[in-house]
Q: What sequence folds into this?
């Protein structure tokens, strides 16, 4: 497991999943000098009430790249279709290869208790890709790396069994995140996806802030085999 590691990799089933849930936190990592990377397994392109999947995919890709830039992060994309994400060894190895390339210290992923099958599959892909990336005997183009920290994001579709236990102060990055999210049409117009994303996630950030004694906060969940932790600084 040779080589330096650092930063955070947020692996989302769809473009927007991770920006909505942990965009503020990703900006904080970037502000503190760490590499922040969004990995979108699909574009989530079939969720628009009016646009075709192709047109919406193009719109979301452009928006995702702009948001990542404004948050100080980078955006990466895989080529799988919305609602068609395969939970295969091939996909897990693809993601493991990206983990070995990016070499993060922290992975954030979808929680498995979801109403959306892409989210459930994204959970298993991220968990097993982390395992595969750390196998020193698994020969790939890049050497193995073990990512010590795994966290799950608080997504409105993934609340079955979600128990937040790790809170991060995101007060300083809230305003920038709020502005950046305007690039996503689902944020600006609830009729696009049939859900009031802006209202929900801004309210959630305030509620989590109240519970953690901050103005704004992001809450995440650690794996069951990890101890409850409320760090005063970023995990890195």
A:
């Amino acid at each position: 497991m040779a080589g330096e590691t650092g930063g955070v990799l947020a692996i989302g089933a769809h473009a927007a999943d991770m920006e909505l849930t942990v965009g503020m936190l990703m900006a904080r990592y970037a502000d503190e000098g760490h590499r922040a990377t969004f990995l979108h397994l699909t574009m989530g392109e079939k969720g628009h009430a009016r646009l075709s999947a192709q047109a919406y995919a193009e719109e979301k890709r452009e928006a995702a790249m702009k948001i990542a830039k404004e948050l100080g992060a980078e955006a990466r994309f895989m080529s799988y279709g919305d609602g068609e994400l395969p939970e295969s060894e091939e996909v897990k190895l693809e993601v493991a290869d990206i983990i070995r390339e990016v070499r993060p210290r922290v992975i954030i992923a979808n929680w498995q208790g979801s109403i959306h099958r892409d989210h459930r599959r994204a959970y298993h892909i991220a968990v097993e890709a982390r395992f595969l990336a750390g196998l020193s005997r698994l020969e790939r183009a890049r050497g193995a790396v073990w990512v010590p920290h795994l966290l799950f994001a608080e997504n409105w579709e993934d609340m079955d069994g979600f128990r937040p236990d790790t809170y991060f102060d995101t007060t300083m990055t809230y305003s920038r995140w709020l502005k950046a999210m305007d690039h996503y049409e689902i944020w600006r117009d609830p009729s696009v996806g049939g859900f009031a994303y802006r209202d929900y996630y801004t309210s959630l950030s305030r509620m989590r802030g109240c519970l953690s004694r901050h103005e704004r906060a992001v809450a995440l969940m650690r794996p069951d085999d990890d101890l409850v932790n409320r760090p005063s600084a970023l995990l890195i």
